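Ops channel
N.P.: pipeline sanity check, posting one input/output pair.
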């Protein structure tokens, strides 16, 4: 597998972390910085106390002097330890705020990223890894661990220099002995980190599949199919296969991590053993006193800890840096937006006209355009229907009009203003789409319609829109009416909507938004004929003072539209009113006859019976 270099250097991630920490949690930055001298002071008191006791006992000091000296050091140690504990709790609380702020950056990016970009698998995989960087896995939390380890490097370097000065008084050979050996550990851990980073795409893909299959038993929407089609055995086999693949990767990961840690054991033996042998040799030769031996012996142990701390902190920083690369790469992912010279507010009170001018669109990796050199003019106030076979490009055209996709070539105009001149979020104010895919959450009916909290919702308007969309019987039957919460899994008194009811709720949401352009993508696909007929009967009221685009597979449902466009082969095959297209005896009539014959056959069969 070809290795991919990290998107950002360790130094870049280090400075970025400090910048973000100062921006979102100055308290955490200041406290962590303050803990550095306090921790170093405590470590020095730890090695100084045994030497002081030996010095007082073996020297000519009085008992009072010895108790006073030792007592002062012990008091300072107790105060320092208490200070570290108190500051540590405050810092952890401040870092939780920092982590929450950073998590919000990923969530905001997920919610606002250009749809066409976010639709790409590699971008969604990157988003998944960015989310992982905000979470804690096996005691590892990249965002906060990067902070701890970044400051840990500074603390350990200062301790290294101070304690190195102490042990160099005993022998200048001790410092290089305790310093050079850990380089082996640094290189081995770095090699493991690079291997893990190079294979992260494989792990992300495998984890996503495993999580998806593992969560299927909890999906109500899949429960019926799993039982009726006896899919349980097949799903268990899929799960076992995926867990087997994951176990294989885990074993390989543990093996490589274990090999990288063996070097650390060798380093400890060489480093500490050599230093202690040298000190013992000096003591027996009379080159150091007993109290000095105790001080140097403790200093060697502590110095080795500082060296190990430098290596450990650096390794952690390097590991966390690779994870932060995914976080930053996602949050910094380039956006496609308009230039902002056009303002949606200038068009809100209009009945817009739309123009597609030589528009082509091709999906990433596709061999040909889904829409090719299409030109279309939708008149102000027109009710236009788009029809065609599956894959004709109807939904793609809608996504282009909604600003969710950018044309591969050509331009789209809203009231003679190019869509590229609007900022995306501003342009969205001009459209009220109802998409074919219906997705509800756990909010109340009113909140779902308004897209806002209850306090910010015009409740009378929300109720009116729901009644216009055909939900009168539903909301009248519910004890809490429009305040009823969706999703029984989360709310004990919640309700579950049928597919048709959910579509009506989405239609109510579009009516509530009251944008000048109404787009309905198969809005009645899940409705029964009676409900569908009622929706069509109120269609003129819904679209009054608006331009409307209607997409349907049912050709019989488009006769009330001003004009019908038949899409195919990436462009417009036929256009006209329903009567004109029937009279033309072309592709539209052929499709209409195929569909209508089923209704005639059913009716005739019923009459014969």
């Amino acid at each position: 597998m070809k290795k991919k270099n990290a998107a950002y250097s360790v130094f870049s991630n280090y400075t970025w972390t400090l910048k973000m920490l100062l921006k979102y949690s100055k308290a955490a930055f200041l406290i962590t910085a303050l803990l550095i001298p306090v921790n170093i002071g405590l470590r020095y008191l730890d090695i100084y106390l045994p030497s002081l006791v030996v010095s007082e006992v073996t020297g000519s000091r009085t008992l009072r002097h010895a108790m006073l000296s030792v007592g002062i050091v012990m008091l300072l140690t107790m105060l320092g330890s208490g200070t570290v504990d108190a500051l540590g709790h405050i810092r952890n609380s401040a870092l939780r705020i920092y982590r929450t702020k950073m998590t919000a950056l990923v969530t905001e990016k997920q919610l606002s990223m250009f749809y066409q970009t976010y639709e790409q698998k590699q971008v969604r995989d990157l988003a998944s890894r960015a989310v992982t960087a905000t979470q804690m896995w096996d005691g590892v939390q990249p965002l906060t661990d990067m902070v701890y380890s970044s400051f840990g490097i500074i603390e350990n370097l200062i301790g290294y220099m101070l304690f190195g000065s102490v042990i160099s008084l005993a022998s200048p050979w001790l410092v290089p002995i305790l310093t050079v050996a850990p380089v082996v550990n640094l290189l081995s851990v770095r090699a493991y980190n690079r291997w893990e980073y190079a294979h992260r795409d494989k792990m992300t893909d495998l984890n996503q599949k495993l999580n998806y299959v593992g969560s299927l038993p909890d999906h109500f929407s899949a429960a019926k199919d799993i039982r009726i089609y006896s899919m349980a055995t097949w799903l268990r086999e899929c799960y076992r296969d995926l867990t087997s693949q994951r176990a294989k990767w885990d074993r390989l990961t543990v093996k490589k991590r274990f090999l990288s840690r063996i070097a650390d054991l060798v380093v400890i033996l060489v480093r500490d053993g050599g230093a202690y042998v040298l000190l013992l040799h000096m003591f027996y030769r009379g080159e150091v006193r007993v109290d000095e031996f105790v001080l140097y012996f403790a200093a060697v142990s502590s110095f080795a800890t500082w060296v190990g701390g430098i290596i450990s902190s650096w390794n952690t920083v390097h590991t966390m840096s690779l994870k932060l690369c995914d976080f930053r790469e996602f949050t910094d992912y380039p956006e496609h937006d308009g230039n902002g010279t056009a303002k949606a507010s200038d068009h809100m009170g209009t009945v817009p006209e739309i123009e597609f001018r030589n528009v082509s669109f091709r999906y990433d990796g596709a061999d040909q355009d889904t829409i090719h050199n299409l030109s279309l003019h939708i008149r102000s106030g027109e009710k236009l229907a788009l029809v065609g076979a599956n894959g004709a490009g109807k939904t793609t055209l809608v996504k282009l009009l909604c600003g969710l996709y950018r044309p591969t070539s050509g331009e789209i105009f809203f009231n003679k203003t190019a869509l590229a001149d609007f900022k995306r979020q501003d342009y969205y104010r001009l459209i009220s789409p109802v998409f074919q895919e219906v997705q509800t959450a756990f909010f109340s009916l009113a909140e779902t319609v308004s897209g806002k909290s209850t306090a910010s919702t015009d409740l009378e308007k929300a109720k009116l829109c729901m009644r216009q969309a055909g939900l009168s019987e539903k909301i009248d039957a519910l004890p809490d009416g429009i305040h009823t919460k969706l999703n029984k899994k989360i709310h004990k008194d919640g309700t579950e909507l049928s597919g048709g009811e959910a579509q009506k709720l989405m239609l109510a949401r579009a009516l509530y938004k009251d944008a000048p352009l109404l787009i309905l993508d198969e809005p009645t696909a899940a409705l029964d004929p009676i409900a569908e007929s009622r929706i069509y009967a109120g269609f003129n009221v819904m679209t009054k003072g608006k331009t409307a685009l209607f997409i349907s597979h049912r050709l019989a449902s488009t006769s009330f539209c001003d004009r019908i466009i038949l899409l195919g082969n990436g462009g417009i095959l036929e256009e006209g009113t329903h009567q004109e297209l029937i009279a033309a005896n072309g592709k539209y009539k052929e499709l209409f006859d195929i569909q209508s014959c089923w209704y005639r056959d059913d009716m005739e069969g019923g009459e014969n019976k």
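N.P.: looks fine end to end. The radius of gyration is 35 Å.
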